Amino acid sequence: MKYRCLVFDHDDTVVNSTATIHHPCFEAYLQRYYPGRSCTLEDYFIKNFSPGFVPMCREEYGMSDEDLAQEGLFWREWVKDHIPAAYPGIREIMERQRAEGGLLCVISHSYEDNIRRDYAANGLPAPDLVFGWEQPLERRKPYPWPLEEILRRYDLAPSELLMIDDLKPGYDMAAACGVDFAAVGWANDIPAIERFMRQNCRNYFKTVAELAAFLEG
Predict the structure, then answer these.
(1) Which helix (H) or strand (E) holds 55?
(2) Which of 80, 108, 130 represents a domain boundary (last residue)?
(3) Could you read off the pLDDT tens digit of each residue along the chain, which spans 217 residues?
(4) Reported pTM
């Protein structure tokens, strides 16, 4: 196999969730608690890309720690009844990795229980490790701890991992650990995001098929 461990982001990398679930949820939250405020889908993608969701909430909407906790509870209730669909071709990539004896891990800003539910609902192989939003702030992307923990637990060299992600926090985390990074762009067609990824990442894949071909090569 090309890499002993594939480390996947979840939202908009494995499942189509921002456009179908997370952005509508955030809009509903704003309508209830910040009447008159709104966030377009494009702005939501861009602000999640950089500076990230929490800085966006603080800087754009003035949310306190208590407000962020409230938004998190609102989101948790919303996603209970909304299961995103995996992108076609993702399951085959994961099944091939697992069949060859490789590891599958997840580092995401979704919660572990939701991630594992989404994997089961989409018939994806169960991941070996999941690091989600339930981790303390300093153990979430873009902080390097999740990748460092994978390296430690499985006694891997950085060259044996590939981080697959659609947003800048994943890129920053991989760069901090010296881990290869695959930027993926099949969730949106926003020029600013694609331009940054193409300019800064050695590997950029616009389709799942392109990623599959890279891993098979």
Answers:
(1) helix 53-61
(2) 80
(3) 999 999 999 999 999 999 999 999 999 999 999 999 999 999 999 998 888 899 999 999 999 999 999 999 999 999 988 999 999 999 999 999 999 999 999 999 999 999 999 999 999 999 999 999 999 989 999 999 999 999 999 999 999 999 999 989 899 999 999 999 999 999 999 999 999 999 999 999 999 999 999 999 8
(4) 0.91
Specify whether 50 is located in the same domain as 113: no
**Are residues 123 and 51 part of one domain?**
no
Residue linked to tokens 């800064």? 200
Q: What's the domain range around 57? A: 18-80
DSSP structure string for 169-194: HHHHHHHHHT-EEEEE-SS---HHHH
Three-state DSSP class for 15?
Answer: strand
44 and 55 fall within a common domain: yes
Residues 152 and 74 in one domain: no
Indicate the number of domains in the chain. Answer: 2
Residue showing tokens 């405020």: 37
Residue 31 contacts by C-beta under 8 Å, 6 or more apart in sequence? none
Q: Are 84 and 16 in contact (CB under 8 A)?
A: yes
CB 19, CB 27: distance < 8 Å = no
Do residues 53 and 142 both lie within one domain?
no
Count the neighbouring beta carbons within 10 Å of the beta carbon of residue 92.
Answer: 12
